[in-house]
Design goal:
The complex is a heterodimer of chains A (432) and B (423).
Chain A (H helix, E strand, L loop, with lengths): L2 E6 L7 E6 L1 E5 L10 H15 L3 E8 L9 E6 L6 H8 L5 H10 L9 H19 L3 E5 H15 L3 E5 L3 H5 L7 H12 L2 E4 L2 H10 L7 E3 L23 H4 L3 E6 L8 H14 L3 E6 L5 H10 L6 E5 L3 H10 L2 E4 L9 H7 L4 E4 L4 H4 L4 E3 L4 H13 L1 H16 L3 H15 L8
Parallel strand pairs in A: 3-4, 3-6, 4-5, 6-7, 7-8, 8-9, 10-11, 10-13, 11-12, 13-14, 14-15
Antiparallel strand pairs in A: 1-2
Helix pairs in contact in A: 1-17, 4-5, 5-7, 10-15, 13-16
Chain B lengths: L1 E9 L30 H26 L5 E5 L1 H10 L1 H12 L3 E3 L14 H19 L5 E3 L7 H9 L4 E4 L3 H4 L8 E3 L2 E8 L2 H8 L14 H9 L7 E7 L13 H13 L4 E4 L1 H7 L5 E2 L21 H12 L1 H7 L2 H9 L4 H4 L4 H5 L12 H21 L8 H4 L2 H11 L1
Classes of the chains: A alpha/beta (432), B alpha/beta (423).
């Protein structure tokens, strides 16, 4: 099954060495630049570094649309009716709801969407065997529930081992485990059929072991990396005096970045803000993001009588988001359930200290952070006030935490994946 | 001729509970956690007494009875002694039995195992006196030899200590202090031949304190036979082998099932098999052996970590900030004339509070070395600063010595008249 390449080596007496290149067929749902969430970014980082470490990655997408160059061959399960960037973004979201899908179908009738997102997922699975047979992989790697059925189908026809990669579960998104939810059923099936399961944190490992009944020995924790050169990082020469006007007036800024939805805990952020403002009135709470709880949160802030100290910026990305990180004295992630959580790493890369929910994967990786249970408003507000009061605390958290964030590189993640692949395909010598 | 000088450090801080910002001004009890966690001082005292102090003292007492030549020395911080009195009085009694043999020496230190030498010589001396008083009261002895917090040493500390009339000090036998010289001789402080020094033999000490149960260590398991051979090898090459370690090594750092108590019990017999070997206390070592040279320590040296400097207590911004805030309060606290405020401020001088704020180990990725009752250095810092802020409020609440009330200002006679009218 191995592709054998003959490479000329100048060193030593052996003029020819056998270099066995492992071929990985990777099923993804979205890919930069037209991605809607963290999944596409994670796939890009992983694929790019796997290729750099000598793995032959074939990355499969359900539809054809423009993608960023990453060194791997991109395969489209459906070559017909290519999408443009905007359409791709609409299509990509794994979190897309039925209304949005119906809207999209009305907008683009020629795209032949199935009747629902599930149908789109199953359609992907139906096209998958052909792709798998054409590429003869050594390992199949499928990301999140959207790609599990495609991965399983590929395993059936080629017999190659299946690795599934759990970036999030339906429990994180909905807050509960519901057997009758078809997404839960797909997840359960994927975990059952997989030969190895990669998860993004110990936190997620516990969730799938306890709720989906997965054998813990089948699971490997592989923490996500973070892009070291990112649009959201404001370099020193890009800083503006304006960014620090508030600090000069002795105001402090506490920042929330994330979808305004149950999973991210924006309501807990507000309750903590209320408690902090009772003791420290010169504080601004900035909430960046949009979502289904937006109205509710704005109403609640007004009801609590802190509407003038809570600012809503809407969804931001790139340099604008970077400036928000830069201007904040503390970033708070009060997530109710966060499989990993890349946003605090972006804050740290901008030198902003972070307070993390203990119910998150990233809190396993970043030791130099403030931490609280998402429901513990007392502990959270105590730490927020202390951080705003003591410059030394902000400085230490920023320096030490920043160092940890910069250590989370994708090459380490890729290396860990390769170890998992190698274990699966057993000995390399079989190839010769 | 080589003598073993055993020195054990006994210390327990009063750990601050998870004191929140909202407690400032409302709660003045900083050290009374009754939670099921490691800030509960009573619980820790009980645990360490049962696992370490009581069984180790029993072994030492046995050794003292069976071997007339066996000797050892201790420094027990005042804040540990007062907690034993409060929570586990039988520990005090068992130490008293050791001292009563006349072959166990008690060394001097600051009462609070503090870092006050850094900025306040006045407070440092005061705490040393407090400790000497406590030792005299409990054990009926006067200490002659000084051991600074965590073996921290520098030329100016030696000067302070010499001024207070001590004959010698203990310090770390760090390589950069000794150079080509060996730690197995008596030395003296810079420009002061009368203040003698014993330097820790860190290799042999750490063999017991750190490596004893380490199965990856090529010498594991460490037997008394093997250890005595290493001691014997120093014959003709030194006078005194200084084995300095935390007393919690026995039973707490090295658990009972590692055989550490058997080792301690069997060691005197094995060492004394060689006719030239013996045991000394620090005071004896200083009278028995002449100093062979001067030790110049322009920079701080301690027994902590690989660095053997102050970085465990004072390297990151939060540690510097906390220490600055602590010393800033000294004058206010002393002017407040409130005994409980002064006592609590002094309890905050204990070095452990700053140790818990250290971030060094986090970056090594070696979390196991990290020993703290808090979840992170930041939690430790937040609790400490909140407590310090409450203490500041208390110093302002009692400005008696600076301002007199009208009632106090009027004369005794007038006051008597007014009282009479009132009644």
């Amino acid at each position: 099954m191995y592709t054998i390449e003959y490479a000329n080596q100048a060193i030593g007496n052996l003029p020819i060495a056998f270099v066995c290149i492992m071929r990985v067929l990777m099923y993804g749902w979205e890919f930069p630049p037209h991605n809607s969430g963290g999944l596409g970014t994670a796939c890009f980082g992983l694929v790019k570094n796997l290729v750099e470490q000598g793995v032959d990655v074939r990355f499969v997408l359900p539809r054809k649309y423009p993608t960023q160059e990453c060194g791997a061959k991109i395969i489209y399960a459906d070559e017909s009716n290519p999408l443009n960037g905007e359409q791709a973004e609409g299509f990509a979201s794994g979190y897309i709801n039925e209304e949005r899908l119906r809207f999209l179908k009305g907008e683009y009738p020629e795209l032949q969407y199935g009747p629902s997102l599930y149908d789109e997922v199953l359609r992907y699975a139906a096209l998958s065997p052909l792709v798998a047979l054409q590429n003869q992989p050594d390992v199949i790697h499928a990301h999140d529930w959207l790609c599990y059925p495609a991965g399983i189908a590929a395993k059936r026809v080629t017999g190659a081992p299946l690795v599934i990669h759990v970036h999030a579960t339906e429990i994180d998104r909905t807050g509960r485990y519901d057997e009758s939810n078809p997404i839960v059923q797909i997840e359960r099936r994927g975990m059952y059929e997989a030969d190895r399961i990669l998860v993004v944190s110990e936190y997620t490992k516990n969730i799938i072991v306890n709720n989906y009944g997965v054998d813990p020995d089948k699971v490997d924790v592989v923490y996500n990396g973070v892009e070291q050169k990112s649009e959201t990082v404001i370099e020193p020469h890009e800083e503006r005096f304006d960014d620090y006007r508030l600090q000069a007036a002795d105001w402090k800024v506490v920042l929330f970045v994330g979808r305004l939805t149950l999973q991210k805990g924006p309501d807990y952020f507000l309750e903590a803000a209320k408690r902090v403002l009772e003791h420290r009135p010169k504080t601004l709470f900035v909430m960046t993001g949009s979502g289904d709880m937006e109205r509710q949160i704005i109403d609640r802030a007004a009801y609590l009588g802190i509407g003038d100290k809570v600012l809503f910026t809407g969804f931001k990305r790139g340099k604008e988001l970077g400036r928000l990180y830069k201007s904040a004295d503390l970033f708070v992630m009060p997530s109710v359930s966060e499989p990993y959580g890349i946003v605090p790493l972006e804050a740290l890369m901008n030198g902003t200290p972070v307070l993390l929910s203990k119910q998150s994967g990233v809190s396993e990786v970043i030791q130099n952070a403030l931490k609280a249970d998402f429901w513990d408003i007392n502990s959270m507000s105590n730490q927020i006030i202390s951080c705003l009061e003591h410059g030394s605390l902000r400085q230490t958290l920023s320096e030490e935490g920043g160092r940890e964030a910069r250590m989370q590189v994708w090459s380490k993640v890729a290396a860990r994946c390769i170890i998992v692949y190698k274990k699966l395909v057993k000995t390399l010598s079989r190839a010769s | 001729m080589s003598d073993i000088c055993f020195y054990f450090q006994v210390h327990q801080p009063r750990r601050i509970k998870r004191y929140q910002y909202f407690d400032i001004g409302n709660d003045h009890e900083y050290f009374n956690s009754d939670a099921e966690n490691d800030t509960n001082n009573a619980r820790i005292a009980r645990k360490v007494a049962d696992k370490s102090y009581l069984p180790a003292n029993a072994v030492l007492l046995e050794n003292l009875r069976h071997h007339p030549d066996f000797k050892a020395s201790f420094s027990i911080s005042g804040i540990a002694l007062e907690q034993f009195e409060e929570y586990t009085p039988e520990v005090i009694e068992s130490f008293q039995r050791l001292v009563d043999t006349g072959r166990v020496e008690i060394l001097s230190e600051t009462y609070y195992h503090s870092l006050t030498f850094l900025q306040s010589p006045r407070e440092f001396k005061e705490q040393v006196r407090m400790h000497a008083d406590k030792v005299r009261k409990l054990f009926g002895v006067k200490p002659y030899v000084f051991r600074n917090t965590e073996l921290i040493y520098r030329n100016d500390i030696a000067e302070l200590v010499a001024d207070m009339g001590y004959i010698g000090m203990l310090a770390e036998g760090a390589d950069h202090l000794l150079g080509w010289r060996k730690p197995t001789f008596v030395y003296h402080a810079k420009d002061n031949p009368t203040l003698k020094l014993l330097l820790k033999h860190y290799k042999l000490s750490d063999d017991i304190a750190f490596r004893f149960s380490n199965k990856d260590w090529e010498e594991w398991p460490l037997t008394t036979d093997k250890f005595s051979h290493w001691v014997n090898a120093h014959n003709g090459d030194g006078n005194v082998i200084n084995l300095f370690m935390d007393y919690e090594t026995f039973g707490e750092h090295q658990w009972e099932d590692t055989g550490i108590f058997h080792f301690l019990r069997a060691l005197p017999h094995e060492v004394m098999k060689h006719p030239d070997n013996g045991f000394v206390t620090p005071t004896e070592a200083f009278s028995k052996y002449k100093s062979v040279g001067e030790i110049d320590a322009p920079h701080y040296v301690s027994w902590a970590d690989m660095e053997r400097d102050l970085s465990a207590w004072l390297s990151n911004p939060i540690q510097h900030d906390a220490l600055r805030a602590f010393f800033e309060l000294e004058n206010d606290v002393k002017r407040s004339d409130d005994e409980s405020v002064l006592r609590d401020w002094r309890r905050l001088s204990t070095s452990d509070h700053f140790y818990y704020m250290c971030t060094k180990w986090f970056n090594d990725g070696d979390v196991h070395k990290y020993f703290s009752p808090y979840e992170s250095p930041y939690e430790a810092f937040i609790a400490y600063m909140n407590v310090l802020n409450d203490l500041r409020l208390r110093t302002h609440a009692a400005p008696r010595s600076t301002k007199r009330t009208v009632w106090e200002a009027i004369s005794q006679k007038t006051r008597g008249v007014l009282e009479a009218i009132k009644s």
